């Protein structure tokens, strides 16, 4: 039985070669560079060395898509060169928990003091789908993206983007079998069985059911139930609008297998589209497993849900506000504010904020240039390098990215 997921992935790779009529090869090239200045209390600060932290990345994603009859398939191969000075490269991602085999490797990996250079590849998607009248069956490496939240999605149990992520074009694929049923034009029921990493004794396969349906003309609701890496999760969401104001409420109840803890992760948000291309979004976050003081905050980074990004933030509560505006037909600006109160006896000691300003210029229909500035305030790391606030340890950084599709 342990060979079955690997066989399914191989099938997803081989079947398209003879089963499709139309094949399309496209790609995306991304060039990114970032510089940050670390001060005392910031991650990466070293009083004996240069405290300017830099990273750069050149990545190419090749996308091969095919379709014919009631079949379709996709292959995404991503190659990248990454270089970092003063900071660590990579880290753990939520998709690592749901990939049977890595299907990735490094052609070059060199570390010299504070400098690291890595060149490698990842097979990010390899999926094969069969479509019937009201059913779709997919097998292989594919994205699963649920939830209605703008910044955080409690129902996105297989992983979600962080509110500050700059690259959200492609959600990483997970190794899964996905069955979708459409009982009506305005409802769907999705069943997912995701495979755990091969040889991992502490991580179980995951399964979930997700129902989404429309209520009337302007409202939708969703229900979720599943066992995710051994934890029981049930959840629901409702979204609608009133007098031009969009609103949503989304929640998930957790029962953790290892500790026996129970907790609720919920969000509530509103959106409003102002005149002249201006958008305002506000969302409140509350996670029962999050920290309410500095003592519990420092222990969380080693927890599995936090380390892999399935628990989005360290603190229990957070406020997110975004303001987006079309400055010119080719230039769009956005501002993001994240505010985290820890609830200390001295309120000022626990509070921290993160500000992110993005400017995106459309170079052509298929290319754009992004400039992003990120600034955080709050208490930094303590002498043991443990966080004392949600954002206080993040250094001020400036990022420039060019992206083009072909």
Automatic annotation (TrEMBL):
Residues 1-21 form the signal peptide. It comes from the Bacteria. Keywords: Signal. This is Porin. It comes from Sedimenticola selenatireducens.
